[in-house]
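ok so i was messing around last nite and threw this chain in just to see what happens. nothing serious, just curious
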Amino acid sequence: MTYTLTGIARYEELIKKSRFLALAAPVESAADALAFFAEHQVPEATHNCWAYRIGQEYRFNDDGEPGGTAGRPILQAIEGQQCDRVAVLVIRWFGGIKLGSGGLVRAYGGVAAQCLRLADKQEIVEEALLQCACPFSDVALLQSRFAANGVRVVEESFDSEGANWLLAVAQERATDVVALITDLTRGQARCFVQPSQHGSSPCRDS
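result:
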């Protein structure tokens, strides 16, 4: 399973007189990640290094540190902590003592990992998408059951016959929810799982 964060996390450490400050945040897109970096970077710091991962999309930046010694270790920390939809910025103020390539890798990766380790996280649950058409007579009944069954309305529209919904539900419950909708509407609602299409959403740990 993978996790995202519930909010911005912060961790600071002094390593051989260099100050390292890690900031991590949940993000939904590359634009979110870049906006987070732009908002929180410190121009007067020596380096502002970062990485993000959103599903199969990732990117990292060494910001002047030797290639492979900052951004990639931060990305590896994100992966090592089983995180997704996460952006991590590590700011360094140089303290006068060079760390060497190995020292930089350990410093950036270690600070990022510790920041994520201490952060409040929530599990990302894989979802299935259901396409559902419901006659007006059963709309209120189904709507009253959505929350209790973990159903989220992604899209909603109405036509002359009733409601058309795109619903999201945990993959493992998709078949049961389709059966429930069919039973509650006595077969009047048309509902099916969209083939080979699913999303995911954060689900707070209990």
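not much to say yet. Residues 69 and 105 are 5 Å apart (CA to CA).
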